[in-house]
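Input for the complex:
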Amino acid sequence: MPHPATVTLAGAVVAERIRGALPGAVREAADGYTVLDPARMYEAMAFIRDDEVLDGKYLVQLCSVDQVTRIDVVYHIASLAQNHIFEVKVPADHEHPEVASVAPLWVGATLQEREAYDLMGVRFAGHPNLTRLFLWDQFPGHPLRKDFLALPGGQKPGLSQFPKQVPGQTGGEFRPRLPGSGE
Amino acid sequence: MPLKSEPVEVNIGPQHPSTHGVFRMVATIDGERITDVRMVVGYLHRSMEKLAEERTYTQNIPFTDRMDYLSAINSNLGYCLAVEKLAGIEVPERATVLRVIFSELQRIASHCMATGAFINDCGAWQTPVMYTFRDREKVLDLIEMTCGARITTNYIRIGGVAFDIPDEFLPALDRLVNDDLPQRFDEYDRLLVGNEIILMRARDVGVVTPELAINASLSGPMLRSAGIAWDLRKADPYCDYDTYAFDIPVGYNGDSYDRMVIRIEEMKQSLRIIRQAVHRLTGGPHKTEVPLALRPPEGEAYARIESPKGELGFYVVSDGGPAPYRWHVRAPSLINLSVLKEMTVGQTIADAIVTLGSIDINVGEVDR
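Predicted:
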């Protein structure tokens, strides 16, 4: 192995490499991660997988984070041969989050994308079988959204009852007020 | 007149002894061969990632016990490492060594269970699993002696471990690692590894190629059976694992038999690590003082460990508050199931059961 311990690549290093091949595919390079342009993310991901330097053959994990104004899909990608790891984020719209599926690139993304769809409601365009993974098909809403359901004692606004008992209630109408939105 | 056969859907599980909990496999079969497989999970989903957003960092540790309940200490460790990375907490020397001892003990317990259950799936009903349970019980006795619980330990804490070891622990550990378990593992070698029936049953069943293993993000014995020497204890060392001498067992064929042998060899390597760790036990505190309502600075951290099932990762996002803003678990049991279809289509039902047993899933971790 070239490195005895895993090296975490800085966002700028990854961004520079992607920019060299695909100008405009990188939106921002932060300290620990790189933010991709959602419109060009699939080609950027394909580049990451097949590039010699980045060598992202191994998709470590995929998850999503609700940032209230947007939903971030977070990918940790690693190279086993060169023993490095880096993080890539793709922002998506909060109301109707949709990003391209990376399941055609990595088989390991198939179940994780289904999980993210089930719990966060991110739609992955091009996924072979985008159905709910854990919850039943009629389940209203996506529970990991911050506006879904607050537990007793919680600070966030939530539903009065578990959604199953109240048919029309989905959680969307209990969205927290955003600062400066005037709602 | 030739016999006509039509595809039939068969439910394997969720209530079936071969499916390791409440895992359900819907297999379409044509005669005895499987032509399509659909997995149905979620029967044990407890929404831990949502619940954790309402609890403090310390209160979340018991959730990790209940994910992979066969290796609770390893799950505790992964979570605590992620929070420590996020908050920049140093761990005392003694606590690091105790973490190594207990996570290796837990690895032995988990692999005992995996090996026994795998032989069970091969058709040797109940007897071998009783042998491996006997050894697992002895390991659990030591864990119980220290933290009072056998399964859901809640032992590793942020900044150290919950309790120091009692006086009678080290003599008991010495008997176990130097006398009892080596004899038992020799017995496994004689009983299982060279056993012709197991060779005939598990060789070339559920083969994964190295390319598929990497592409499908497999980890743990699944990845190593395909011939890739990837163990996070060596590749991305935590708890000073890089200073211990041990080997990574690697398979050749990527089949179910290789995975069983790798688990048995890993148990022997765990004994080696424990023997070295005992000599490193120094005095000093077993825990640093950490505020109960810990407020890590705003940011995110991803920490990963080599759990018995594979790469167990924790992605923790903090907004500066007392509860995690987001908490995601990279569950090796779930991701190792990505190749279930590739492995089982074309097999007979009996082989599919062996294949599933060799993946060693834990439904508590698949569903979370």
